[in-house]
Design a protein that fits this description.
Elements (H helix, E strand, L loop, with lengths): L23 H11 L17 H25 L6 H27 L4 H6 L3 H11 L4 H26 L6 H30 L4 H17 L17 H4 L16 E2 L5 H5 L9 H13 L2 H13 L5 H27 L9 E2 L1 H6 L4 H29 L3 H28 L4 H19 L13 H7 L3
Parallel strand pairs: 1-2
Helix pairs in contact: 2-3, 2-5, 2-6, 2-12, 3-7, 3-12, 3-13, 6-7, 6-8, 11-13, 12-13, 12-15, 13-16, 15-16, 15-17, 15-18
């Protein structure tokens, strides 16, 4: 359709007159006067700074930042020593994953295909993330993830809410508010955690200098949105001299007494607390195993990093499982208290993380999913029934929820393994057993007394345990 000349693309101003029909406005006023209800007035007005294209450009960068923060925190789960920080990191991985999912869904509503969204890369953002990951301690990591990147994201989200059209872009406003509902408490926790590090002796000036360094680097790429005025990038970057590599060995703080040369709690304790196979022994072993799922936070977190960019849905499922494992660790910790123990008096088993940390993700995932979680499901029904018979409400309650989680993990794990490897199931299981045999022998957890020796599925379930 051809526009009139005065409404064409070169027109500088177009005024469309209002044409009324006699009596209609007066009739409308009379009808409104008779209407009895005085509902709250919607004061939102049409108008905002962003076109759909600009809106999508910004949301895509937000998505990428959230996805990269999920990756980043996952890569550090092994290296964080402090128990509380490791737990919170397990949670925060999923908060960032969920934010990325919300943003991804909104981008598909703005005419972007999921494949195009998932394929998006930004080397400047990657450079920032890699530098942030080069933190020298968990305290520096929190400064970078939360006090620099997280704070900048929340500021960008609030500005976006203020600047976009509140009517036409209401879905974006709603999703950003939902993301902020997770992000704001996360930042508040991080402020307290950094303060705790400083109060405990971490050098505050070095943390402030690191924050300044990363703030400048973020500013040099136009901030989170990419639209801010760019400053000069700081030099030198740590990654210029040493590219970032994730840790491979599990770290624990000084409150823990740890062991890795056996999978047997009684052997680690030096004696059996209860008769073998008694309900009391099985109960305590289950509770301790849940507390020791701190190593599952490490496993699933590192898987996110190791398979980054292969499949967003797999990353998302791994992030959710990581949060679940953080909850299981909390469950075990609190159940120990209810059982009358100081959780730190009971030695922490590092066997699983020590073996999985350096391993290729497919084999590490196969161990924890096909052996560990499946192994839990073999025995948990009987344990719940035994708890009910003894009116042990604590164990019955927590095991009921853990059973539900583990069933979900086994189901999701199959698809995640398909993303990790093309090996068929038997070959994957056999190779996983071989690798864990080598590791368990090297740790002294089993004795190799034959020329050809591979531990069984049941041995791995017992010696590594999940």
């Amino acid at each position: 359709m051809k526009l009139p000349e005065d409404l064409g693309a070169n027109a500088t101003k177009s005024i469309i007159p209002t044409v009324r029909v006699s009596g209609q406005r007066e009739a409308a006023a009379e009808r409104k006067a008779r209407y009895p209800f005085k509902f709250p007035r919607d004061a939102r007005a049409l108008g905002g700074k962003y076109t759909v294209r600009e809106n999508s450009r910004r949301l895509l960068r937000y998505f990428y930042f959230e996805r990269r923060l999920m990756h980043a925190l996952g890569s550090w789960t092994l290296a964080i020593p402090e128990f509380e920080v490791k737990l919170e990191t397990g949670r925060h991985i999923f908060w960032h994953a969920d934010a990325a999912r919300f943003l991804r869904e909104r981008l598909t509503e703005q005419e972007m295909r999921p494949k195009a969204i998932d394929a998006f890369r930004d080397p400047e953002i990657d450079r920032f993330i890699e530098e942030m990951l080069s933190a020298s301690s968990a305290a520096e990591l929190l400064v970078g993830v939360h006090q620099v990147a997280g704070r900048a994201l929340t500021t960008a989200y609030r500005h976006h809410i203020d600047d976009t059209d509140p009517v036409t872009d209401a879905p974006t406003i709603r999703l950003l508010r939902r993301i902020l509902a997770d992000q704001e408490p996360m930042l508040a926790w991080a402020e307290q955690a950094v303060a705790a590090y400083i109060a405990g002796g971490i050098d505050e000036p070095s943390l402030v200098a690191w924050r300044w360094h990363l703030d400048r680097l973020l500013r040099s790429i136009g901030g989170v949105s990419g639209a801010d005025e760019r400053g000069q990038a700081p030099t030198p970057l740590r990654t210029d001299t040493k590219p970032y590599e994730r840790a491979t060995a599990p770290a624990r703080d000084v409150r823990f007494d740890t062991f890795k040369n056996t999978g047997d709690y009684d052997a680690a304790d030096g004696k059996a607390r209860f008769p073998s196979d008694s309900y009391e022994s099985l109960r305590l072993r289950f509770i301790r195993t849940q507390r020791d799922e701190v190593d599952a936070i490490e496993a699933f977190g590192t898987f996110i990093w190791d398979i980054r960019f292969k499949d967003f849905d797999a990353e998302y499922d791994l992030a959710r499982i990581t949060w679940d494992e953080a909850r299981h660790t909390e469950i075990g910790h609190r159940a120990m208290l209810i059982a009358g123990y100081d959780p730190f008096e009971l030695p922490n088993r590092l066997t699983g993380s020590t073996c999985r940390g350096p391993m290729e993700p497919a084999y590490a995932m196969a161990e924890i999913n096909l052996f560990g979680e499946v192994g839990v499901l073999k025995t948990i029904n009987q344990l719940i029934d035994a708890a009910a018979d003894r009116n042990d409400e604590v164990l019955r309650h927590v095991a009921d929820y853990i059973r539900s989680d583990e069933r979900t993990h086994v189901r999701k794990g199959g698809r995640i393994i398909e993303v990790m490897t093309n090996l068929e199931a038997k070959a994957l299981e056999q190779r996983t057993r071989e690798l864990f045999t080598e590791c368990l022998v090297s740790l002294g957890a089993v004795k190799k007394d034959m020329d050809v020796f591979t531990v069984s599925r049941e041995d791995i379930e017992r010696l590594v345990g999940e």
